[in-house]
Amino acid sequence: MNPKGQRILLIGYGNPGRLDDGLGPALAACIEGLAIPAVSVESDYQLSVEHAHDLTNYDVVIFADADLGGNEPFYFRRLIPSVSSGLGSHEVSPGEVVSLALTLFGATTQSYLLGIRGYEFNDFGERLSDMARKNLGAAVDFLSTLIQNGNFDEAAKEYTGDEEPCIDICTDKIILN
Amino acid sequence: MIEAWPGGLKLSTDKNLKRIIIEPVTRVEGHGKVSILLDEKNKVKQARLHIVEFRGFERFIQGRPYWEVPVLVQRLCGICPVSHHLAAAKAMDVIVGADKLTPTAEKMRRLMHYGQMFQSHALHFFHLCSPDILFGFESDPAIRNIIGVARKYPALAVQGVMMRKYGQEIIKVTAGKKIHGTGAIPGGINKNLSVAERDTLMKDVKQMMDWSLGALKIAKDYTVENLKTLAPFGSFDSNHLSLIRKDGAMDLYHGNLRAIDAQGDKIFDHVDYQKYYEYIAEEVRSWSYMKFPFIKQLGPENGWYRVGPLARLNTADFIDTPEAEKARKEFMAVTNNKPNNLTMAYHWARMIELVHSMEKIKELLHDKDLQGRDLVTKGKRRDEGVGLIEAPRGTLFHHYKVNKNDQIEMANLIVSTTNNNEPMNRAVQKVAEDKLSGHKITEGLLNNIEVAIRAYDPCLSCATHAMGRMPLVVELFDARGIILDKKEKR
Lengths: 177, 490
Description:
The complex is a heterodimer of chains A (about 180) and B (about 500). Chain A is an alpha/beta fold.
């Protein structure tokens, strides 16, 4: 457990059979291999509604996913409850998971998004591109250190990437998270 | 110049036509876009659902050893990996000559499959369909979504989450883990169900059953109360196809193929699916990546068919669980025991299957065969095998040939959504004709088209989902490909 006593959940998601889309699960596997106390690791093809219930047991959740166009090698930013444009599907966005957790279960879990830059997605294959592999290494180093010191908000300020607009569920105004 | 009407060379010669592109379809899996071709009077000339489907999976698995395939195919789709896992395993059963699985193996696979069906149907109803039926097709999209349901109907939304979670737990204990499961192997299964796992699942059976019946009531009441409006909505007569048990019962895991026409007359019945290719063919059309399957004897023009919950309710003579059978009779009574061809009746049919799946889960959890130790069987090795299963979205075909070195030499997959390709296009066309012609293109009107597509619960691409891929773009083109209008939201 880190100095702040936080219970931490890492959810790495993506399809390992679609090249760099597997960055999230690859990160999850690396962190799981470190066996850091008080850190639970989940891996999934994509986020879904039941992840909202999973958040209720943790102080901090980190969603890790491949990103097509974000900062290299990765960005790290705080998430707020959000609705991302009605594009919710069987797959939901990290902000929607956080929103459901808050709305349905009263969970106020601190939530962050780790977006690792990927490059190759449009083929089947269980491998990462060379650049994605390099970015993965940087993300693992970053996250393993961060989990152990617990300074998530400070890191989010330093590593925030390009913002995407979302809709604040409280005001329904379009904001930048 | 932008050409926005794929394969539309013929159409693009008409300078008086406009085209509208809706991309992608919201709350539908993967990537897809709808394009509507208008004439000079703003009447709908033609509407199409374009599927951006990744190709090449069949090539991806060529050369891999056959025993890896049930695990590999789960990479195909993040929505229904269990269906691909089981269909591939069934094909590999044929390869290894396992013509009859042990009771433990077959029942473990069935439990896995009903768990998948249960979570998929619950998720679709509570989190994809319910925003449309609770708030109205043309209501404000800012509230017509998962979060809107959670805020206004929190009890329902919680049920959806917990039912999905329950189904996922069943998958976890039968497949070994929630994703990349390895449970089903050629000739059987690699684990049984422990008493502890069984008891954990048993605790929630009553709650899940109650919630399933509640969801069924919502779907039934909604359909019956709004029948006048829903009956013409995206509806049309069609053939229907599914697996069927020997005695004519609905069987979601195994059986033979039955196809009926719109009046309920049988086109073929009890066909051994190892020879499916003698009855089903696939047509390629220039404007879509997705193929269009059809019944050979009727040809591509008349041989297309529906699959999925609606088709299965129509093809089955009965359901072998009491609550679902009672619901089936009520469902069929609406159309005087003739096939139901209402697109929006998919939701009601889906909830009948939700109840059936839960009844089957309960039945299996009480079956001591699940604690058996005889897990795998084998027989005479073959070099070709076909596996079919009734996936949540419909009949799923896996066909493989294996060489003497045990490597995959050929693979052909017809996924459920491909089977529903023509019906979804028909639904889009019908709704566009009824709702869009001569009207301003509003979000609510666009959503009518999406509502019709969603009824089929399509999984459009088995796609990657990496962030940044899916803005919603609406574009209006004239016949020359010049953009007239464009709307985008993220």
